[in-house]
Structures
1.
Amino acid sequence: MQLNFSTYYTLICAALVLLVGKYLVHKIRFLRDFNIPEPVAGGLVAAAVIFSIHEFTGYSFTFNSDLQTGFMLIFFASIGLSANFAKLREGGAGLVLFLCVITVFILVQNAVGIGLATALGLDPLIGLIAGSITLLGGHGTAGAWGLVLENEHGVQGAITLGIACATFGLVIGGLIGGPLAKGLITRYRLTNPAAAEATASAPDDANFENPQKVRLITTEAAIETLALFAACLGFAEFMTAFSKGTFFQLPTFVWALGGGVVLRNTLNYLFNFQVFDRAIDLFGNVGLSVYLAIALLSLKLWELSGLAGPLMIILLAQTLTMALFASLVTFRVMGKNYDAAVLSAGHCGFGMGATPTAIANMQAITNQYGPSHKSFLIVPMVGAFFIDIVNAAMIQLFVKFLP
């Protein structure tokens, strides 16, 4: 039997998940020491409870997906609204270098998936599904490419398989990023006075770096901010429909982010209107937390338990590959410093799951060790915008040349 939760009850459940996660992280030292994000801690408990109910009673729960999508779009719009051109220029060489690192990782991730699938006697396309299609691409890319692989390449159950792999990645991405970055910080003794100086000098508009910080906003600023978000989401919905089936078709969240960038800089440079960054920051963090809570509430762990042994081998190998690449390549190439460690946590987040998971990973680190303005500048733009374009092109090439 299936129980459907309306918008209001879904929001209530999400709020409870966040409160439980906050309580668990506060009370359990292990979660604090390994920097597990609060939405992940509470969400996994909720998913385990739902799984137990399903196994013992046969009941399953469906939560409102429109609400989840809406908060996800709010989060990505907040990234765009926070990214003025001065910040993009500030990202500069670091942003380009990080994009190159992630591009190489896509090749590695797909090579591992395809190679193991072939060695285990599976269709190589299944290895691609357990590669960047689902792990770096997430649930949206999994659904879109699953349909293509089922209809055009005869991969039966590609959509279900993709959703299960993306679910696995979402959970793992939120679990390995914090511990990995903590290990790097401890091993290389990166918690030095420079971090304290960075904390003291962090800019007030350093969005997402410290979600616990009190944000002083007014009613007028909140209303203006809501109008900006509404404009971004409306633009995203229009462009998604307008670009469907064209060469510039992109996921809705990319249009929301891009619309935010255009709107922010148009208002700044053409109309001299200053966007209220603290309000953008507040709404963005709320969107991030609620999105992750609903995403983890919606996990169907019985789908993961039904994965075949060979596929689990591939996914576990991908987890190990992600951890090794982030620590041996991402960390070293990006400077082998505190910023590089935080970037590595973010890479684990969207390399296995999604950009919101990456932000949550980085927040868990910066809450303990101090802000990393560079990381919060680079990861959202690369993870939510540029890399989706690169990933789509690479997936197309792999699909074309695989037998």
2.
Amino acid sequence: MGYLRAGRFAALLGLGLIAGSGAIAQMHGNGHGHGMMHGQDGQHDETNMPGLRGENATEAESAELAVMFNNFQTLSREVKNLPNGIRTVTRSSDPAVMEALVSHVVGMIGRVEAKDDPKIFIQSPTLDIFFDRAEEIDSTIDVTDEGIVVTQTSDDPELVEAMHVHAAEVSAMAERGMQAVHEMMMSR
């Protein structure tokens, strides 16, 4: 795969947040559609992950994101915080997971540039600023043997701070999967 250039924000979501069909769920949200999803018994549904669906997400996105969350242990990630952004390298030891990862990252370029928020139920509120100020973010994506390399920059200090925060959130998800998501949601 080759070099991709996005004029604005590419894919701060190095991992995704949606999963397949499943249990009856109830949402306990924060008014923005972001919330905790539970199965009928009130426990987290780790099989169907209903909280990973989005108000504006496609089935294809759901499928690729489920692959990443269900196989997070194959992911590894390096992040370098830059004064004006971030540089991340994300990879998977599993070719199918890597394919889903690349598809997700590239797909998010268009979503953010179009300000087309997927509104995932458990989505981090850190992402809101990216959809609001997409035109102020420049991204470069390169798929190499090293992994998917994303460099994102902005002249807006608030966007840069959000990039640093979200890069750490994504790294936590790559390390601990849904456990990291639950921890982040509980800390809010």
3.
Amino acid sequence: MNFLTFKGGIHPPDSKSATSSKPIQEMKEPEEVIIPLQQHIGAPCKSLVKPKDEVKVGQPIGEPQGFVSAPVHATVSGTVKQVTPKPIGGGRTAECVVIESDGKNELHSEITPYEPIDEMSEKQIVEMIQNSGMVGMGGATFPTHVKLSPPPEKKIDTIIINGAECEPYLTADHRLMLEQPEMVIQGLKIIMKAVQAKKGIIAIEANKQDAIDMILKNISSEDPIQVVALQTKYPQGAEKQLIEACVKKQVPSGGLPMDVGVVVNNVGSAYQIAHTHKTGIPLIQRITTVTGSCITEPKNLRVRIGTPIKDLIEFCGGYSENPGKIIFGGPMMGIAQDSDEYPVIKGTSGVLAFNQNEALIPEPVNCIRCSKCIIGCPISLMPVTISEYSLSDRMDDAKRYHALDCIECGSCSYVCPSKRPLLHSIRVAKSSIMEKMKKQQK
């Protein structure tokens, strides 16, 4: 089999062995959930409930306040205790609905399966996805219905389902493809109909040969779907790199996948869309990998949105030693946390806990001009130059060197022998540039 890829990238150890063979476990329902009203890119939701209200599973509790937004639903049945701002990790605070579970797990009365997909129009499919609260499950949390609502001039011909899962340690998507291949394929078919795409691709890295075989086994010869095998390389699962590898198209600078006729969705998103269509149940849970050197028994868990992270860790046997760092997501693009009391949100693909030695941040030294960051950059940028402009507060120069095109994969920082804070300083530049652009627009 010919393994496809893109120019650039790096090869960190995949560190997936602790959970790659662990079947997905259904975690017990939490006694209390903390559900943020903003778990997505875009406008936060407005609360539809107040303290002492009784709610059921799947009941809308957050109403979107814009098109680029996604509704939020109750993930347990019970009583609303609070509607109040709370820290949700990564230095962020959001309005949250705190629900005390009654243990009954009763579904909201309006939840029913949808009619057969052949009987639904494209508009009805997009509305179903929008009402379900679907966002990108790979971690980006961009509202899915927005991706599936391109302007008339942007014709989508290809849907790519991202099964690369190139982040080290994470295995949730891998297990999902092994355990629910027919649902992943059905989700792809639903997405294809939503935008009238003629071609579907499920892209999987070579280190998941069992998933490649399982998906191939479940695809009918009549389906306009193919499996693309990818080289195991980071960041193979990034949208632009995935498109380059699969269909040999390059998304223009500042552009979107729809500009080249492509929409990319995560494996988890495809599964959830099929699950919602089959059951009517909106996005109330997700699969999360819990692993790392400080986790007693690493696992892949199906958990309710809003479950405190400490509950997941306790379900995995607790900490084997005091953690030096806790990360939401993967080690390359995830965000370090200062507490394990924050809730699982729609984008929490992983919870990693590392020991004190692994958490140490090396002191940076002067750049030795080795060019490893340039060679490894999947966007063909000059990370060291952009970083230097950022550190010297020359943001216009950083913009001129295409700082905004950075996908923040962290490849540059990983390969830097001088341990320069390349990614961090580029993020600062991007934030400063975008803030200036917003002021100019006003």
